[in-house]
Amino acid sequence: MSINRRIILRAHPGGTPVPSDFQRIEQPVPEPGPGEMRVRNLYFSMEPAIRGWLDGKDNYFQAIPLGGVIRGPTLGVVEISNLEGFRPGDHVWGLNLWEDYSILSAETILLEKLAVDPAVPLSHYVGALGPSGLTAYVGLHDVGQVKAGDTVVISAAAGAVGSVAGQIARLRGARVVGLAGSAEKVALLKDRLGFDAAIDYRAVPDLGAAIADACPDGIDIYFDNVGGRTLDAMLPHMRDFGRVVCCGMIGDYNNQSNPTPVHNLWQVVAKQLTLRGFLLFSHMETLPQAREDLRRWAAEGRLVALENVTRGIDRAPESFCRLMAGQTVGKTVLEVDWA
Q1: Which of 23, 53, 172, 276 is buried deepest, with most CB atoms within 10 A?
Q2: Are both 198 and 112 inside the same structural domain?
């Protein structure tokens, strides 16, 4: 391919993003300089966190400007390398851009060379065996300190991180309750992923009462992917010294200028709770063990990798918008369309 297709931000989204907020452009294929390599991207990882970079306001990363190429994790293969430790044919992962070809260097965030198993679908290294699975692992172990006998509640439990977090908690001997947004997702959690119980939060009139029924002795760990009203409903049902793993706040990603109030924060004091957020790149020391455990569980058939894959770089905006509208199950992945 002689051109580099790139997806840029055309307009700041007004709430839930729509495909017209994005645009494809074409530019020359870039050439790597000293200490750089050119990577042909194979998969884009669709992440809710990307939504936080589209409003023109900096958070833990700089905002993507209008006309800027969309930033997100990608998996690709090295074509040309002037970077020590990398050679053509290596599969690499990093926080990159939505484009056919990228120039990466040692400064690329989360850059790593992947040891891929040819028997495993490559797309799984974007999800359950990649950052989604690693995030679930770090959240439960480093932050949640999960142990056998714990009661663990997972929000967005049919999503990329939640589906893996629930399975890891179960493998560690915990009782696992998942929250999801449809009867179909609830059935998937219980029948395919082995959750002990699941709640369709859209179908219950009182989420707090449903949580009390499912967890009559309280909650030891709440793995929070949602924030807002769900977090508020959960706090009164935490056990003393419970741990709230703050992984994401997807309930407010489409409305960051007017976030949902949380009224039950007194419970943090009364129950002596720990609420802790985390970012994956702050826990690099845990990742080697996490990768090995995830790989082994998947090989043994004890970890199910849920994913939905869309093919074609032009469909990247559509794929991301479906994720942010809550219309996906498991890890949302975009496969770049190479001939």
Answers
A1: 53
A2: no
Residue 79 lies inside a defined structural domain of this protein:
yes
- Output the domain CATH number for residue 154: 3.40.50.720
φ/ψ of residue 27, rounded to 5: -140, 170
The two three-digit tokens of residue 43, written as one number:
């998969």
Q: Which domain holds residue 40?
A: 3-127+306-335
Does 150 map to a domain?
A: yes
Question: Is residue 267 located within the same domain as residue 329?
Answer: no
Task: With beta carbons less than 8 A apart as the criterion, state whether 203 and 179 touch.
Answer: no
In a domain, 296, yes or no: no
What DSSP string runs through 75-128? Answer: EEEEEEE-STT--TT-EEEEEEESBSEEEEETTSTT-EEE---TTS-GGGGTTT
CA contacts within 13 A on the Cβ side of 86: 27
At 323, list the tokens: 């994720």
Give how many domains the chain has, as a whole number. Answer: 2
Q: Which CATH number characterizes residue 84's domain?
A: 3.90.180.10
Q: What is the mean pLDDT of residues 242-251?
A: 90
Closest CA to 121 of 312, 313, 298: 298
- Tell whether pTM > 0.85: yes
Backbone Cα Rg of the chain:
20
Residues written for the chain: 339
Residue 32's closest CA among 75, 82, 74, 69? 82
- 288 within some domain: no
Q: Do 243 and 206 lie in a common domain?
A: yes
Strand segments (E) across the chain: 3-9, 22-28, 36-45, 71-81, 91-97, 101-105, 112-114, 151-154, 175-180, 197-200, 219-224, 238-246, 274-277, 307-311, 331-335
Convert the pLDDT of each residue in 160-199 to its tens digit. 999 999 999 999 999 999 999 999 999 999 999 999 999 9
Place of tokens 């645009």: 23
The tens digit of pLDDT for each residue in 247-292 reads: 988 776 667 667 788 899 999 999 999 999 998 878 989 988 998 9
Q: Is there a single domain that holds both residue 156 and residue 21?
A: no
Q: What is the DSSP annotation of 300-320?
A: TT-S---EEEEE-GGGHHHHH
